[in-house]
From TrEMBL:
Residues 1-121 form the DNA polymerase III beta sliding clamp N-terminal domain. This is Beta sliding clamp. It comes from the Bacteria. The gene is dnaN. Residues 132-250 form the DNA polymerase III beta sliding clamp central domain. It comes from Sabulicella glaciei. Confers DNA tethering and processivity to DNA polymerases and other proteins. Acts as a clamp, forming a ring around DNA (a reaction catalyzed by the clamp-loading complex) which diffuses in an ATP-independent manner freely and bidirectionally along dsDNA. Initially characterized for its ability to contact the catalytic subunit of DNA polymerase III (Pol III), a complex, multichain enzyme responsible for most of the replicative synthesis in bacteria; Pol III exhibits 3'-5' exonuclease proofreading activity. PANTHER family: BETA SLIDING CLAMP (PTHR30478:SF0), DNA POLYMERASE III SUBUNIT BETA (PTHR30478).
Length: 375
């Protein structure tokens, strides 16, 4: 195998593939990227056996077709540190000979592992498919992924639940995530072809890799899935992932329907006030107490080590016309939501100990539920 390619082109492709590779694993071949040079160009493959990424790399001059593997992280670091504009030549003579890399006056050789040992994560049949604009997919991810659970014992919460639903005769594609303390539910108009899709749980790592790839395009992303796997085609990249084998809880049951105490608050002013009062404590789980009166909000936080902090928001930023109320929330949870909504936040309360609904006034498609903390 022998080919040459411009540094920037190879670097971008290696950045995609090497991020899938687990830094620590007990199977050496999984630390490698598979390089497949053919007359049509170069194809890179990386997998951790849960996710696989395959990328067709343009602008490659192949002088001798062939296949080999190379340590993904090492190859990426070498290419990253080469000067801009460099032309890289990769040459592998076959067998267990090292992979030679040359760029200008720099040269190195990398150990390879047998191509035959490289695992194939075959897609299988993916009968359901639809296309979704990259911006819409980014929106679904950004407004839900912060609520994904990191508790491994509740593995079925370690991803985003993606499914079709119907709301008052309108068909929607929903993304939902929860860690038991908060819920994020976001919906978009159902894309053509998604009506018969099964409800699937997309793993947290897959969501992170997909979000990075979706940032690089404005085009539509092709989604194909079965009950066990899902794939995303983003330009010349195909990301394939196993799905979480579990049942996502019936999240609709935890969404309050009768919360009648409504507060509207300026998102920016509220977010800044939360950030300031929460700074009194280094504990990320420290609650911020909200004390509500007519068109008035007081935020307070206390720390046994540092003291206390207090800030008031009045009628210029707050609209509230129900009975006075005190309720506490984890500051980080409030910050996660305020980072994803528009100019005005709408809180719907029942009392100080019941779940609270939070919405973006300008976006009916996003809904959040927060469990209060004792303050």
């Amino acid at each position: 195998m022998k080919f040459s390619v411009e540094r920037a082109i190879l670097l971008k492709a290696l950045a995609h593939t090497q991020s899938v590779v687990e830094k620590r694993n007990t199977i050496p071949i999984l630390a490698n990227v598979l390089l497949d040079a053919r007359e049509g160009g170069l194809k890179l493959t990386a997998t951790d056996m849960e996710i696989a990424i395959v990328e067709e790399v343009p602008g490659v001059q192949v002088s001798r077709p062939g296949r080999t593997t190379a340590p993904a992280a090492t190859l990426y670091e070498i290419v990253r540190k080469l000067p801009d504009g460099a032309t890289i030549e990769l040459d592998h003579k076959g067998g267990d000979a090292p992979l030679a890399l040359r760029a200008g006056r720099f040269q190195t050789s990398l150990s390879v592992l047998p191509v035959e040992d490289y695992p194939a994560m075959t897609e299988g049949a993916l009968p359901h498919g639809f296309r979704l604009e990259a911006a819409r997919l980014r929106g679904l991810i950004d407004r839900t992924r912060f609520a994904i659970s990191t508790e491994e014992t509740r593995y079925y919460l370690n991803g985003i639940y993606l499914h079709a639903a119907e709301v008052e005769g309108r068909k929607v594609l929903r993304a939902a995530a929860t860690d038991g303390h908060r819920l994020a539910r976001v919906e978009e108009d159902l894309p053509e072809g998604a009506g018969g899709m099964p409800g699937v749980i997309v793993p947290r790592k897959t969501v992170a890799e997909l979000r990075k790839l979706a940032e690089e395009t404005r085009d539509e992303i092709e989604v194909r899935l079965s009950e066990t796997k899902i794939s995303f085609r983003i330009g010349s990249v195909v990301l394939t992932s196993k799905l979480i084998d579990g049942t996502f809880p019936d999240y609709e049951r935890v969404i309050p329907k009768a919360n009648d105490k409504v507060m509207e608050v300026d998102t920016k002013g509220f977010a800044q006030a939360v950030d300031r009062v929460a700074a009194i404590s280094s504990e990320r789980s420290r609650p911020v107490k909200l004390s509500l009166g007519k068109d008035y909000l007081e935020l307070t936080a206390n720390s046994a080590e540092a003291g206390n902090a207090r800030e008031e928001l009045d009628g210029d930023l707050v609209r509230y016309d129900a009975t006075p109320l005190e309720i506490g929330f984890q500051a980080r949870y409030l910050a996660d939501i305020t980072g994803q909504v528009g100019e005005t936040l709408v809180f719907r309360f029942s009392d100080g100990s019941a779940p609270t609904v939070v919405q973006d006034k300008a976006d009916d498609g996003a809904l959040y539920v927060l469990m209060p903390m004792r303050v």
